[in-house]
From TrEMBL:
Record-annotated Beta-lactamase hydrolase-like protein phosphatase-like domain positions: 2-110
Keywords: FAD, Flavoprotein, Oxidoreductase, Quinone, Transit peptide
Family annotation (NCBIfam families): TIGR01244 family sulfur transferase (TIGR01244)
Domain FAD/NAD(P)-binding stretches: 150-263
Name listed for the protein in its UniProt record: Sulfide:quinone oxidoreductase
Cofactor(s) named in the record: FAD
GO molecular function, one term: quinone binding
Keyword Flavoprotein applies: yes
Entry's Gene Ontology BP terms: sulfide oxidation, using sulfide:quinone oxidoreductase
Organism of origin: Shimia aestuarii
Top-rank lineage group of the source organism: Bacteria
Length: 557
């Protein structure tokens, strides 16, 4: 037997024999559903034989035969009713298990999120791409698929999405472009570190989405439920279907707050904060101003995360403020990093270590936050140091800045576009999808080995636009991405270590050393971060003005 577990309620498998029923009962199952009609194959046992063996094993049975490829809506209803009526857990089978998995998927579509259904069946080894529209439509066959179609559809209206839309239109003004995003507000997320440090007001980092969508671009205010790349279709919530000639996928990533036990319940109170959320960054500043003594924890989860320097930026800016307030000597600063290094590019580490020592901060590597007890003000970490046995430690705190675990969005992870880790699978040079040639991706959601930062998206947007237009014009992609990313590390109030690098840790400075030496803290880099980059973001990047972001070109072979 090849038992595939979908969830605790149901498992499915290919065809079984009467001799398997005792083992099925011994595995803890209490019921069996047969979804294969008798007589499909000469070597197939009849349901009567299965039923007799099941009865001897103490199992209940149900016969719901389905012809391969012909699962009707009422069949799914019958399967759902059987799951409610039969004692569980339930074992279902057909020739390969696919019909049983399909029936389960459709029967759960009214109560489960499509991404959860697709994730469960994918983990069990079954691809539900053929019924994804029905899943999104609550398990029913859609009656209306005559929806919108565009030259280019962009999934995501964040920094990457709006920038690439503007860059496309600057190259080909007549393109019919749509952006899909359900959000009302667009955020300048790089500013939240400065909000948490008391430099920016949170309100300056937010604008309405409608004010930023480029003129002439259609805004489809909806969430994406699934992709059908073989049919050039995006399925929206409510089972609306949007067709495209070319697709750009850039919805960002998911902050997985729920992955840390107790975190959601205590965010924004009990001294627990995060600059990774618009509404919490001001609370960071409140806590910093109010803390006169005690222990401050700053956490960093396993990679990948957006802006890998942000966890320590929060630490440096907080410590700099405590230093200015004259209370730093009474505060125990602890950096709890799930990884094993302070920063991934060694050239910047010496300057950062000077500040670690200046603020008397302790570096705790291989410490991954797994639980928080807000009222008790304790944080629990899984510690997995090399050559040591895993252990768990609990640490008391007075203030804790949390960087949440991060993954690709659910609807991306379960899609045909994702790699095994759940990220969009692209060629790291052209940012074109490895399998589907009319799909591109950029920003935090794709799997190229670059830093996930807004600066990276600023450079990627023109590259994707250039290559997509090349494709429209019948040419091979000519713009090449070198992995550029930038991380302005705010090491003190008024100074920044401007880390700029590409693939393999290659340093890629934008300025001459006499102006900004990125390996050292400089006032000039602070001015860049505080005064120059915000207007560059709002007035240049999002409007297709590619300041210091012209694509590197290669001749087509």
């Amino acid at each position: 037997m090849d038992i595939k577990t979908i969830n605790a309620q149901i498992s499915v498998s290919p065809q079984i024999a009467p001799s398997d029923l005792k083992d099925i009962a011994a595995a803890g199952f209490r019921s069996v559903i047969c979804n294969r009609p008798d007589g499909e194959a000469a070597d197939q046992p009849t349901f009567e034989e299965i039923e007799s063996a099941a009865k001897d094993a103490g199992l209940e049975t149900r016969y719901l035969p389905i012809v391969a490829g012909k699962v009707q809506d009422e069949d799914a209803d019958d399967f759902g009713n059987a799951l409610l009526e039969l004692p569980g857990p339930v074992f279902a089978y057909c020739r390969t298990g696919t019909r049983s998995a399909t029936l389960w998927s459709l029967s759960q579509a009214k109560t489960m999120a499509p991404s959860d259904i697709l994730a469960a069946t994918k983990a069990a080894g079954y691809d539900m791409a053929g019924v994804v529209r029905r899943i999104v439509n609550g398990g029913k066959t859609p009656t209306d698929t005559a929806d919108a179609a565009f030259d280019v559809v962009i999934v995501g209206g964040g920094a990457a999405g709006i920038a690439v839309a503007s860059s496309l239109l600057s190259r080909k003004p007549g393109l019919d472009v749509a952006i899909i995003d359900p959000a009302d507000i667009h955020y300048y997320q790089p500013g939240w570190t400065m909000v948490g440090g008391g430099i920016f007001d949170a309100e300056t980092t937010a604008k309405t989405m409608g004010s930023l969508i480029p003129s002439g671009v259609h805004w489809l205010k909806s969430a994406v439920a699934a992709f059908e790349p073989k049919d050039n279709a995006v399925i929206l919530d409510g089972c609306r279907v949007v067709k495209y000639n070319r697709l750009v996928v850039c919805p960002g990533l998911k902050l997985d707050w729920n992955k840390v036990e107790g975190l959601v319940e205590t965010l924004g109170k009990n001294g627990v904060t995060s600059n990774y959320r618009y509404d919490l960054a001001p609370y960071t500043w409140e806590l910093v101003k109010g803390l006169k003594k005690g222990r401050a924890l700053f956490t960093q989860p396993p990679m990948p995360i957006k802006c890998a320097g942000a966890p320590q930026k929060a630490m440096y800016l907080s410590a700099s403020n405590w230093e200015r307030m004259g209370v730093l000597k009474d505060i125990d600063v602890q950096f709890m990093n799930a990884g094993g290094v302070l920063f991934g590019i060694k050239d910047y580490v010496p300057a950062l270590m000077e500040y670690v020592e200046r603020y008397n901060a302790d570096l705790n590597f291989f410490h991954n936050l797994v639980a928080v007890d807000g009222p008790a003000k304790t944080a629990t970490f899984a510690v997995n140091k090399p050559d040591s046995d895993p252990e768990t430690v609990t640490v008391e705190f007075d203030m804790m800045h949390v960087t949440p675990p991060q993954t690709a969005p659910d609807f991306i992870r379960v899609s045909p576009l994702a790699d095994e880790a759940g990220w969009i699978d692209v060629d790291q040079s052209t940012l074109r999808h490895k399998e589907y040639e009319n799909i591109w991706s950029l920003g935090d959601v794709m799997n190229a080995p670059n830093a996930k930062t807004a600066a990276a998206a600023r450079v990627q947007a023109p590259i994707v636009a250039e290559n997509l237009v090349d494709d429209i014009d019948g040419k091979s992609p000519t713009a090449i991405y070198n992995g550029y990313g930038s991380c302005p590390l705010t090491v003190e109030r008024g100074k920044i270590v401007l880390a700029e690098f590409g693939y393999g840790g290659t340093l890629l400075p934008s300025f001459p050393k006499w102006l900004i030496d990125g390996t050292k803290p400089t006032r000039a880099a602070w001015v860049l971060k505080e005064q120059i980059l915000p207007p560059v973001y709002w007035k240049a990047m999002l409007r297709g003005k590619e300041w210091m972001a012209k694509p590197e070109k290669v001749s087509a072979s």
